[in-house]
Amino acid sequence: MVHTHERWEAPPPAIGLDAAEVHLWCAGDSPPDRQLQELASILSADERRRAGRFAKDHLKRRYIAGRGLLRTVLCRYLERGPETIRITYGSAGKPCLADAQPGDALFFNLSHSGNVILFGVTRGGEIGIDIEYIKKSIRAEKLARRFFSLHEHAYISSLPARHQHEAFYRAWTRKEAFLKATGRGIAGIEDIEVTLAPDAPPSIISINGSPPPPEQWTMRDIRIPAPGYAGALVCESQAPRLSGFILEPWA
User: Fold this and answer.
1) Does 176 share its domain with 197?
2) pTM: predicted TM-score of the whole model, two decimal places
3) What is the pLDDT of residues 71-90, one digit of tens each?
């Protein structure tokens, strides 16, 4: 049973987006210097200050690329210059438009891991996305015992060692995408239980031990156009249509 989004293409010149759609945008986090300078030039003063606080150059470049590309994506839908877009952040770091007009109704989220940045955009309600580069060096069973429910830990422990990492990251991205959609922050990851069996659709089993409200959230796995990653999407839209776009040639 397939529950992943797997089709990626170049974006069309003009993009429409209705409440039943979710658009995913994928890019690399290391643009050439010239493009990085262009992205830095459209950041807000606060974003430039934040970029200047990074001690390591690769983290600074990744931050500039992520925030700059987010603005270039949003301006396609808002039909105004990327430098005019005001983004604010909630207490757990969830971004949203600071000056949304009645017709904007735009919800978005972003995630980076490894050398990939992913953006999700919709008009159908809150959205959270997460991607993680699958590190085979982690102790998946031990981490599952610490952060996951008894059922999730038992499932991951029952797998052959070579499959435990994929299952751990499948659970992690599903949980974090939900926490980002709800603006709760990653500190609540132990409170969320998700499906993990290959024949079970991605979904939330419980929140703090209680079933989630029916029909409130849609969860999808995401297979990005780069090997070795796990990804997930959670949104308020029911059965959304997904489209995936490659943002830049250097992705």
Assistant:
1) yes
2) 0.91
3) 999 999 998 899 999 998 88
| Tokens describing residue 217 | 């959230």
132 vs 8, 129, 135, CA distance in Å?
Answer: 18, 10, 9
**What b/e string do you get for 60-82 counting C-beta neighbours within 10 Å, with b at 16 or more?**
bbbbbbbbbbbbbbbbbbbeeeb
Give the C-alpha separation, 219 to 232, whole Å.
Answer: 7
CA–CA distance from 63 to each of 46, 133, 231 (Å)?
A: 12, 17, 20
Q: How many CB atoms lie within 10 A of CB 47?
A: 19
Give the helix/strand (H/E) hosting 130: strand 127-133
Q: Comparing C-alpha atoms, which of 43, 82, 84 is closest to residue 60?
A: 43
Both 47 and 64 in one domain: the answer is yes
Q: Which domain holds residue 107?
A: 4-132+221-246
Q: What is the pLDDT of residues 92-116, one digit of tens each?
A: 778 889 876 666 689 999 999 999 9
Cα separation of 68 and 112, whole Å?
13
Q: How far apart are CA 66 and CA 38, in angstroms?
A: 13
What does the CA dihedral 70, 76, 80, 84 come to, rounded to 10 degrees? 0
